[in-house]
Amino acid sequence: MSLMITDECINCDVCEPECPNNAISPGEEIYVIDPNKCTECVGHYDDPQCQQVCPVDCIPHDPDRQETHDQLMEKYQKLTGKA
């Protein structure tokens, strides 16, 4: 399951540089996460780095994007070219 950023985002800019997949970018009003690039840091880290640094805890799992650990790993491998 990919992550999402809620409207509680304060645009503090700390999550974007932490994302190893470049899935986070400024949206019209708040930061957004591209679900096609979000692997919840699977393949890179043990925990999602954006969640670790977010000061307002506004990055939950996206209930509309259910993915297993294996699916996230497959996405990581496609994004990075690592098998």
From TrEMBL:
Pfam families in alphabetical order: Fer4_7
Domain 4Fe-4S ferredoxin-type: 1-29, 31-64
Molecular function via GO: 4 iron, 4 sulfur cluster binding; metal ion binding
Xref: Gene3D superfamilies: 3.30.70.20
PROSITE patterns listed in its UniProt record: 4FE4S_FER_1 (PS00198), 4FE4S_FER_2 (PS51379)
Record bears the keyword Transport: yes
Domain of life from the UniProt record: Bacteria
Keyword 4Fe-4S: yes
One CC-aspect GO term: cytoplasm
SUPFAM superfamilies: 4Fe-4S ferredoxins
Keywords: 4Fe-4S, Electron transport, Iron, Iron-sulfur, Metal-binding, Repeat, Transport
PANTHER family in the cross-refs: PHOTOSYSTEM I IRON-SULFUR CENTER, PHOTOSYSTEM I IRON-SULFUR CENTER-RELATED
Protein name in the entry: Ferredoxin
Source lineage: Bacteria, Pseudomonadati, Pseudomonadota, Gammaproteobacteria, Oceanospirillales
